[in-house]
Structure formats: C-alpha cells, structure tokens
Design goal:
15 helices, globular, 39% helix, alpha/beta, 16 strands, Rossmann fold, 3-stranded antiparallel sheet, 378 residues
Length: 378
C-alpha cells in the first residue's frame, strides 16, 4: 500500500504528513484548493507549506466539493487520508453552509465514489477532532461521571466560567476524555467533524474498506499559518506579539486545551495507515496534559522576549468549551503511540521557527468584529 492520496495535503498537517510519507518511500498525491485563508492570495509565493511539497508530490489543485476533482485524485490510489476541511470553531457558527458543504458534502462525494465506482482504495483515514466531544469528561462527587452541557450566557456574563454538574449544578472535577465519552459538540465545526467520522466509519465498514478516525486535539508547531486569525491561539498570540499588540485573554485565562505537537500528529497518523490494529477504530491524539490559555500567552511572551501586556478581560465566545484533554490509553495500547513532545519542548521549537518568519499582518481584530456582529462575542 504505497500510493496515498492526502486531501488538504498542502495544509499544516497534510504537508508534514506528505514529507514524512515520502521519506518512508510512499508515493503521495495531494488534492488541495490552496485556500487564501491558509496559504495567502498567491500560494506559490506566500505559502511555505505549499512550497515545501512542490515537486515532491503529485499535486492536484481542486476542491473536495467537486466530484471530478475527487475522481481524478482517487484514481490509482491505495489509501486516502482525508484532512481537507474548514476548521475554525468560531467561524463555523456564522459560515454554516460553507462548513457543511465542505466538511460533510465533500466527504459524501468521496464515499459516493468509493461505493459506486471502480477504485483501488484499501484504507481510509479521516481527521476528526476533539471538538466532537464539546465539553470533556468530569467527575461529580455525588453523581460520578458526568458530561456538562453548554455554559450559559447568564453565568458567563457574571464571570462564572466553570462547568457544573448537569444533574445537581454542583462543582465537578476535570478528567481526561476517552473515546467512549459522550459526544455532544457545541459548534457547527464539531457537528461536521462528528458527521465526517461517522460517515467514513459506517461506509467503510459496509464496503469492507478499513477506516480509521483520529480525534486530533489542538495541533501546533513550525509551519502552521501565522496569518489565519480563525484557528490556533499559538499562531494568533504569536502574530499579535510580533506586531507589538497587547493580548486580551478570554474568560479568566484558566480555560485549557491539549496542545499536541505536529510531529506527534504525523506519527500517529502513519500508524493508522500501517497498522491493521487501527482498522475501524477511533483514536484520540493529544499530548496527555491540559495547558491553560494564560500560561500559553505568558510562555510565548517570554520566549519572544516581549514586553506586551497580557490582560484578562472576561470576554467570552458563545459555543467555546471550558476544558478538554485526551485520554490516550487506547492509542497507547492498540498502536503503541506515545507523544514524544511535551509542551515546553514543542513551544520552544515553535517559537524558534516563528522568529525566522516574516511578521504577518495581525487580522485578529477583524475576526472578533465578525463574531461581535453575529452576537457570538461578549
């Protein structure tokens, strides 16, 4: 199984995966529309991600919403790694049709071709997301394992940002979220990723094509877009700092995420391609530890030797989750995967790379304005 199609293969995860697979002797085809939001207006000039794979892969410029692009890309492939998707959680709440058309509709076209046309595909790996969980798993002293529902506008307006037991309303303790946890996404993005995952696993099983779904946590590392204001707080904060702009932290700064380094994501994905133990399974991929947002901002400021101010404004976005970090027991047991990079190691390499890059325009205020106009930012 040496011929691999990677959709979104010019993106952050896709380009790194492409280079790793090429080094292992695979033949890689990339289907990517070179979205200006990620690659700039002229990818050949502005996108280091795209330039890193040019001449090394068979590149098809096309979109997953176009059936003929899919047909062209699938022809002759042994496996598909389906990464192409719109990925902004906040943006998904007001560009709903776009997210549904690309994430769900694009996946449906792929599966329709695999069901109804001749092909040589023997495995499908799909990028799911931690966003499908919504809030993570918690423990209530009275009610045991619980999965809190969306936090209310009323509570957050009062500065009460912590999740509550959905049964008694009492305090709860954060636990690592395992793959068998309740799925209750709190954004359109999360809903579309849940749909992608379920569609691929269901159709893969019906066709006898092994399928694997990876619920990636917050991916970061050298090469990620520094100009996209809709995803990735490490990139957003870095661009703000490099422009000398102060950082306003949402909520109380204690909200946390599981930041997983790009090479760990790539290594886990390769295992899914190569190991039969991964077939028809879903796996979390994370770094095994939550890091709060205030710590992220302070670490970046220190690493860039900056004196910008960090303020905690109490602002919040409706639909944002409070905490979520991955339980990695399943992927460790079945695939032998353990993350190689902790946050300190990964953030150092990320910042070292950012210091070599041209300072990008800070478009963050534009994204906040859009959220305010839609009533999603308070």
């Amino acid at each position: 199984m040496k011929r691999i199609l990677i959709t979104g293969g010019a993106g952050f995860i896709g380009s790194n995966l492409s280079l790793t697979l090429i080094a292992k002797g695979y033949n890689v085809t990339v289907l990517d529309n070179l979205s200006p939001q990620i690659h700039g207006d002229n990818a050949e000039v502005t996108s280091p991600l795209y330039k890193s794979i040019v001449g090394k892969v068979k590149f098809i410029k096309g979109c997953v919403t176009n059936k003929s692009d899919w047909q062209n890309a699938i022809s002759g492939q042994d496996a598909i790694v389906h990464l192409a998707a719109e990925t902004g959680t906040g943006q998904s709440m007001y560009e709903i049709q776009k997210y549904v058309d690309i994430n769900i509709g694009g996946t449906a076209i792929m599966l329709d071709i695999l069901t109804n046309e001749k092909h040589s595909v023997k495995k499908i790996v799909v990028a799911s997301s931690r966003a499908i969980y919504g809030e993570g798993k918690y423990s209530c002293a009275t009610h045991g394992l619980v999965y809190p529902t969306d936090r209310t506008d009323v509570d957050m307006a009062k500065g009460d940002f912590e999740c509550k037991c959905p049964i008694c309303g009492g305090e709860i303790e954060l636990l690592p979220t395992s793959e068998d946890s309740t799925i209750h996404p709190s954004s359109i993005y999360g809903i579309t990723k849940q749909n992608q995952e379920q569609m691929v696993l269901t159709v893969g099983k019906s066709l006898g094509i092994p399928a694997v779904a990876y619920r990636y946590q917050n991916v970061y590392g050298p090469g990620q877009s520094l100009s996209n204001p809709y995803t990735g707080i490490l990139s957003i904060f870095s661009t703000q700092i490099k422009n000398g702009n102060n950082i306003n932290i949402f909520e109380d700064g204690k909200e946390s995420r599981d930041f997983v380094y790009i090479q760990d994501i790539v290594d886990a994905t390769v295992l899914g391609l190569e190991k039969d133990e991964a077939n028809y399974q879903v796996f979390n991929v994370g770094a095994d530890k939550p890091i709060d947002v205030l710590t992220v901002a302070k670490t970046l400021r220190h690493n860039y030797n900056s004196d910008i101010e960090i303020t905690i404004g109490g602002n919040y976005r409706l639909g944002d989750i409070r905490h979520n970090y991955a339980d990695l027991s399943k992927i460790k047991t079945l695939l032998g995967f353990t993350p190689k990079f902790n946050f300190k190691q990964g953030i150092a390499q990320f910042c070292e790379w950012v210091n070599t890059q041209e300072v990008q325009k800070d478009n963050y205020d534009k994204s906040i304005t859009e959220l305010k106009e839609k009533g999603l930012y308070k």
